[in-house]
Amino acid sequence: MIKTTGIITELIPYSESSYIAKVITYDKAQISIIAKGWRKKNEPILRFFEYDFCLSEPKEEGLYILKELCVIKDFSSYPNSSTWAAAEAGMELINKIIIPLSEAKDYYTLLREYLGYLQKVSKNGILIFWRMLLRIFKMMGINFDPELCDRCQCLTSPVAMGHNGDLICQNCLQEMFDTHEYRTLSSTAQRVLTLLPQIGNYLETIKLDRAVTEELNNLFLDYYSSHNKQTLKLKSLSVLSQFY
């Protein structure tokens, strides 16, 4: 019998009585669990919940078999729909990336802290999602420094972004003969990037609109795609952007 702690990130009906649960765990990274007969039990199994799991070794298509579970924490309740959408975006992101087994603890702790923090956030949850992205980039070895010019490598306030998500400062932009590959960042986007590492202190003072959210979403997604050689599409992030 195997015991582990995890958060259910996705729950899929399987037959009339069972579920397949996708779970990020503290020590095994991402696993899939079949919960046989659980749809007919009085004891619910729910997404966004953290559980202690008791499992049997995989026998069917690599699926662990659920024997018992015990609730540790409920991460399913948020102040409003916008914050809930930010939580969904974080969960979807964790599902999309490949987590090395050796780093399972770090990613699990990040998601747990992210969901717990959002439960206290009533405004601008997307800012917390972008901060989470910054931390994941660093963990993946593709560190994104929002205050670093990618051309001169100086710590400054970048004013433009390239198609691959790189940033450039004002001096470098003025020195370039061909600037068509760069798009000027809006003043709000520049401010968000500067404050992002400590963004929790500014949730009430930053005013976002649809254009700024799309601008920064494109920046981060372009950066991910450029450095991982694959496109990252998050449906929940599109939903989250609709609140601005």
Detailed description of the structure:
The chain is an alpha+beta fold. It has two domains: 2-74, OB fold (Dihydrolipoamide Acetyltransferase, E2P) (Beta Barrel), CATH 2.40.50.140; 81-241, Up-down Bundle (de novo design (two linked rop proteins)), CATH 1.20.1440. 36% of the residues lie in helices and 25% in strands. It is built from seven helices and eight strands, in the order βββββαααββαβααα. The protein has helices spanning 81-96, 104-118, 125-139, 170-175, 187-195, 210-228, 235-241, and strands at 2-14, 18-25, 29-35, 49-60, 63-74, 160-162, 167-168, 182-184. A five-stranded mixed β-barrel has the order 1-2-3-5-4. It has a three-stranded antiparallel beta sheet with strand order 7-6-8. Strand 2 and strand 3 form a beta hairpin. It is elongated, with a radius of gyration of 20 Å. 32% of the residues are buried.
